[in-house]
Amino acid sequence: MSKSKDNAPGSPPEGSSPHDAASPGSPPHGAGAHGSGAHAGKFLTGDYNYGSVTDKISAVVLTQESPRSWYVGFAIAFALVMLLLWAVTWLFVKGIGIWGINIPVGWGFAIVNFVWWVGIGHAGTLISAILLLLRQHWRTSINRFAEAMTLFAVACAGLFPLLHLGRPEYFYYLAPYPATTGVWPQFRSPLMWDFFAVSTYATVSLLFWYVGLIPDLATLRDRATGKFPRIIYGFLSMGWRGSARHWARYQKAYLILAGLATPLVVSVHTIVAFDFSVAIVPGWHSTIFPPYFVAGAIYSGFAMVLTISIPLRAVYGLHDLVTDRHLDNMAKVMLAAGMVVAYGYIMETFIGWYSGNQFEQYMLLNRMFGPYGWTYWMLIACNIAIPQLLWFRRIRYCAPLLFVLALVVNVGMWLERFVIVVVSLSRDYLPSSWDQYTPTFSDWATFFGTLGLFVALLFLFIRLLPVISIFEMRELLEETKGESE
Amino acid sequence: MTAPPQLYGLLAEYDNPDQLVEAARSTYQAGYRRIEGYTPMPVEGLPEAMEFRRTRMPLVILLGAIFGAIAGYALQYWVAVIAYPINVGGRPLHTWPAFIPITFETTILCGSLAGVLGMLALNRLPRPHHPLFNVAEFSRATRDRFFLCVEARDPLFSLPETRELLQQTGALEVFDVPQ
Q1: Alpha carbons A25 and B170: distance in angstroms, whole number
Q2: What CA–CA distance (Å, rounded) separates A267 from A125?
Q3: Which of A50, A74, A483, B52 meets the CB 3.0–4.6 Å disulfide criterion with B144?
Q4: Is domain A84-176+183-479 in CATH 3.30.1360.120, yes or no?
């Protein structure tokens, strides 16, 4: 059993090098292939070797007692899941009339939340796919839970269109299946594109995540002491043994999968933006929407990764693996995405004025000074003004402040979707058809319920699977051993 | 073939990847072909040391993606033009730009599925049991140890000589792997 070998003499006593540097022949790997390697050492502080980094991460799942905050957090999240179940049950009993939607505002919270959740998912795929392709070593300690975040966010997102259908039991009408009625879906509709985009995205994210997990599941299988965990992890790891030929195919497949996932992320939020921009509602019919939505997705996604990683590393003491430099990098990405979003706002305003279209011009005035004007100004504050603090290095290196800023951005991005969806719909072309939209308790219950679902799933994930990719940390050690000496 | 039939092979244990790569290379050069390295993470140069250079993964994924593209577009064309044509103000039925988003999604979906299933199939996974798991120390192959296995099926395999060869490569220990 591996248990007896835990503190085996084989682990080198000298800390910083993963193994004895004295090896026969010149190392055939490493040289030249890792352009950014010079800085990689700083993304893993402390003295680690292959064994201790493995033990450190797997201990969270296998041996470490869950801290009390885990139980408290999970209990709160679970209560919110119950609220969600209540809200959904009541919705099925009464119909979507219990939501605040009315006739001009046929899309209310459901679509606001859908777009927000889908956007949050995107940072996970970006971190794992694009940063992998760009050989950014710092992705290694955050990609696993960022991908988990993607999956859970997409699951929350997917709920809303289903619930919004009114008769969710007929959702399969969207799927092109051979029916006796001979009625087929309308493939020219952006909503149909959405169905394909989101379901493809969910599937590919799941595959990417699972493939990344296989070697770590094998590690857990070999390190678990109980019979039941060994069977479960053994089943899930599918007999992975780390064979060199397997690794070669694995790496190739993983890299190409990353290459496929990258344009997929962009396409998903582009298609979500098409839901709006293909319509002719003032405030929606805009060509800037696809890129601007993608930037917004990255913005809110990185904010959510920060929101999760800061408490996570504090509670489990993972400061060596998720370092301040990781937070700094994520804050920089967030700042850059935020500037693109700010450009989007400016362009929307400029084009609204420059178009000379009186409906567009009215839409802008209404957005800023109409009955929902406060949401617009809060949006500007949350998404543009306050995040400018990120220019300061001292703030980027202050984890609690960064956490607050990330929360502010999350709120801001939610407000952005609210402003786009509700404010545009409530006053379109004909004043006779204008109406105000007020969310009901049921709307809020569903929204907070999905927040609870998201957090509960994350807590279970932290408890049951390695939050940081173990084999990639070992790889990082191997690649950076030269620089750390 | 002096090995007893119930032996799967010999397993040599190393404590760093460079030694393993070196050992794999010298074992390969000694003429052994049924050899395999087992490592906790991908080790650069190890497959090459055993002359394993090309995988068919890119081809499998390309074929999956092409299948997805054709199937996705064909489905939309067939539905919109043949099975359920809707005449909206005399607009063309074959409105190809509107079919691009879904075609793109099905391309990615089928490519990714082909990638994952193809990777598992080429690796002959899932395989819950394997003779190597009979060696208790092998559990460290997913932690911090590097192993080289010479299978008994190899025509050059002979228990004392192969063991000697493996010991000369600097192995910490050489284990018999029961079948």
Answers
A1: 13
A2: 12
A3: A50
A4: no
Q: How many CB pairs under 8 A join A and B?
A: 237
Give burial (CB, 10 Å; 0-12/13-18/19+) of A90: middle
**pLDDT-based confidence at residue A18 (cuts at 50, 70, 90):** very low
Contact A419, A379 (CB under 8 A): yes
- The H or E element spanning position A283 is none
- Long-range pairs, A345-351, Cβ under 8 A, ≥24: A345/A380, A345/A383, A345/A384, A347/A288, A347/A292, A348/A286, A348/A288, A348/A292, A351/A286, A351/A288
pLDDT of residue A478: 76
Percent of chain A whose predicted confidence (pLDDT) is above 90: 40
The helix/strand/coil state of A198 is helix
Residues with Cβ within 8 Å of residue A358, at least 6 apart in sequence = none
The chain-wide mean pLDDT, for chain B, equals 86
Residues sharing a CB contact under 8 Å with residue A262, sequence separation 6 or more, in sequence order: A125, A126, A129, A130, A133
Neighbours of A365 (CB within 10 A): 12
The pair phi, psi for residue B109, each rounded to 5°, is -60, -50
The length of chain A is 485
Task: Report the length, in residues, of chain B.
Answer: 179
Are A378 and A368 in contact, with CB atoms under 8 Å apart? no
Strand order in the sheet with B146-151: B35-38, B146-151, B7-14, B173-178
Q: What is the DSSP letter of A67?
A: P
User: Which DSSP category does B122 fall into?
Assistant: H
Smallest CA–CA distance, residue B159 to chain A, in Å, is 22
pLDDT of residue A16: 39
pLDDT of residue B17: 85
Whether residue A95 has pLDDT greater than 60: yes
Query: What one-character DSSP code corresponds to residue A484?
Result: T
Q: In B, residues 55-114, which contact A (CB 8 Å cutoff)?
A: 55, 57-58, 61, 65, 75-76, 79-80, 83-84, 86, 95, 98-99, 101-102, 104-106, 108-109, 111-113
- The helix (run of H) or strand (run of E) holding residue A426 is helix A424-426
Residue A302 makes CB contacts below 8 A (sequence gap 6+) with: A123, A330, A333, A334, A337, A406
Query: Which single residue is written with the structure tokens 């994520």?
Result: A330
Helices (H), A126-142: 131-133
Write the CA distances from A76 to A71, A297, A451, A453, integer angstroms: 9, 27, 11, 10
Distance from CA of B131 to the nearest CA of A (A): 11
- With CA atoms as reference, report the closest residue to A202 among A252, A164, A256, A161: A161
Segment B33-48, tens digit of pLDDT? 888 888 888 888 888 8
CB–CB contact B65 A242 (8 Å): no
pLDDT of residue A7: 38
Where along chain B do its domains lie? 7-49+131-178, 56-123
pLDDT-based confidence at A172, cuts 50/70/90?
confident
Query: Is residue B164 within 8 Å of A27, Cβ to Cβ?
Result: no
Q: What is the pLDDT of residue A339?
A: 94
Tokens of A461: 């994930």
